User: Fold these one by one.
Assistant:
Number 1:
Amino acid sequence: MATKLGHGLRTALQSPIIAVLGVVSLAQPLLEATGLLAAPAPPEEDLRGKRVLVTGATAGIGLATAARLARMGAEVVVTGRDEARLAAAVQTVAGGRGRVTGEVLDLCALASVRACAARLGAFDVVVLNAGTNANVPTAEHADLPGCSLVFGVNFVAQWLLLKLLDLRPGARVVCLSSVSHHSADAATFGTLGADYAESKLAMILLARAISRGDFGAGLLGVAVNPGAVDSHIWRHVWFPASALFAGFSRLAFLSSDEGSATSVFAAAAPAARLPRTDDGLPAYLAPFWQPPRGPGRSAFEYLSVFAGARPAFARLPRDERAAADRLWAACARLVGAI
Ligand SMILES: NC(=O)c1ccc[n+]([C@@H]2O[C@H](COP(=O)([O-])OP(=O)(O)OC[C@H]3O[C@@H](n4cnc5c(N)ncnc54)[C@H](OP(=O)(O)O)[C@@H]3O)[C@@H](O)[C@H]2O)c1
């Protein structure tokens, strides 16, 4: 409750900054179209010999991420819950240099998660990208009693997938977070009260725990905010506002390809090039320019000048390690035997 109130106050204070940044974001595509500004792209790495998994790759950022990683030569496995959309995604991604296969994975069903993990084999890179923001506060995940649908799909089911996967030595795990994590309340993790924001904070805690060695020695986790991206995820915006919103997002938000830039950098950059925080763990990354410090800096994570993957400020719970331990315990209780 206190966290939500704090977020409400912060948002009110940041609103003027966000409004100005919205205008800046509208100007950027114009500057790019006239050649005055170049859109940044992640550097091309040679990923031949690497095996990569991208969840939720049938649309949006996941599809664009898979396509870019395949162009860099990786063998890419894309997942989706709908066979027809999955087949179409494999076709789209198959234009790259690397081999591409599709695997059915429905994060609403734990049996699907377990069956998918059993078929998958070993990976060098896993991008936990799948997500929904259909925030119906009362909707419960069918296989996770007492846990919200959104938190279950966005986090718990992908936590289970990760626990079941075979990760090669030195493997990298990219965890899709969001600016929304700033309003999360870690006390509600794993319950019906946990929604999109909590699922995205959980992704940051997961990435940091992976890098600390909690999921196996030598692994690296990187949390990313892809930025405000014009994708299907916004289809749940309330109807009367939806047409207006769709127009604004088409003009001011990043395209899915631009939105994949941060995930691709996190997945493909050599470990030595990943920015680190003071504690030595890989930094939370976002694609927008942001002042290095100051109370308003998280406003720049909503919308700002698209500048490519760069370290951003993650709002961690004060008792991060204890909150993470409570989260793993809640996940273990919800999924049962692993
Ligand atoms: N777009 C943004 O502005 C934004 C900002 C911050 C963070 N993000 C994060 O970026 C990630 C990608 O989002 P996006 O914008 O690319 O959204 P999107 O276009 O809606 O794509 C989401 C992907 O997740 C899949 N998915 C959703 N529910 C699933 C389920 N129950 N089981 C299996 N797959 C499921 C979708 O599959 P279907 O095609 O079957 O629905 C789709 O492939 C998400 O984690 C999101 O939270 C996005």
Number 2:
Amino acid sequence: MSLVINVNGSKREVVADAETPLLYVLRNDLDLKGARYGCGIGVCGACMVIVDGKAVQSCDVPVSAVAGKSITTIEGIGTSERPHPLQRAFIAEQAAQCGYCVSGIIMSAKALLDARPQRPALLAANVQSAGRGRRGRRWHSPAGTGVLFSLGLTLARPVRELSGVSIVAGVAAVRALRALGAAGTALKWPNDLMLGVGKLGGILVETRAQGAGSAVVVGIGINHRNAPGLAARLRRGVAALEDCLSPLPGRNAVIGALGREVLGALCAFDAAGFEPFRSDWEALHAFPGEPLRVRLADGRILAGVAAGLAPDGALQLRTRGGLRTVRNGRVLLERRA
Ligand code: FES
């Protein structure tokens, strides 16, 4: 019989017996050799493709069953010039052994990840070797010294409404730390966690459009124990949770407490917006009503008195020239350290 199947976004006409396994048609008729023949009975997964978003063993499904459906093979997700992120990760980690079933593993992983975009995910690390800070700064955290995690989730709000997310995450992080007993923790605009004048940690937020909403990743790094020589290396005050918590909770306990609080805060933000967090941030600000100096994005220094946050999370300073709103800059603490 003649039928049309939709493979990697193209309609392909094939002539085959209705019961012919899809794998045979892909490999023999369409010359798509990425899906492999392993067991031939739907057990090993070497022949995995994605059909209408679901991972399917192509050796075990007749071609007639997929007519009109959308089929994706490994050839459809990346090329050697532009590999899919999963392929890049496999290459970077040299994850393949003999390599025979790698395409099946990657297609299974892709289907799994694609099917779960709505569910929050928290990934924690023991060591950070190439962490990213604001403006491309690199962060290193030796094994066992940091509370390091990223929380990924989908929000209904579009990216243009997310300018306050790092403020929301900061408020939630300090709430969680104070609940653990770290009473002296506070916030420095826009994304630093402070203990006195020492930097305890930082928050970095990445966003991208996802349908009508947004995919958001909130990365949080907090010093759990003091790393010898760090303050001298950074030439500024540095603090760690061991300076203010005794007994010091384990890193997993801290991650769990922060992860729950940040997730709850982001869901509340998604529902009600930034406004409810403005007064909370001001109550947790390390330097409310104090004179501040801010290095602006163009290098100029702006001096003024901290005057809370604008409705979008920008810092407001009362200067000699009136109220100024800072959206991109860094509060300097040299005089305090
Ligand atoms: S070849 Fe093993 S599951 Fe298809």
